[in-house]
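Suppose you are handed a protein chain with no further information: no name, no annotation, nothing but its sequence. What can you learn? This example shows the usual starting point.
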Amino acid sequence: MAIKVTNRKPLKGRDRSHALNTSNRARKLNLQVVRLEDGTKVRLTAREIRTLNKQNKIAA
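A reasonable first move is to predict its three-dimensional structure. Written in C-alpha cells, the prediction is:
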C-alpha cells in the first residue's frame, strides 16, 4: 500500500453548455505511485514527481 503524501484536492466547478445548462464536475489529480530513494512507495501528483526528479529524490 502506498502512502498518500500530497494534500491537494480535486478542482471543483461547473460545466456550462451553449444552452447555459450547468452540471457539477471535479477535475481529478493525476496521482501516480512511485518509489523514493529509501524504498518507500508514495502516491504523488505528476507535477510533484517532476519536481522530485529535478532534485534526484526518486529512484530511477
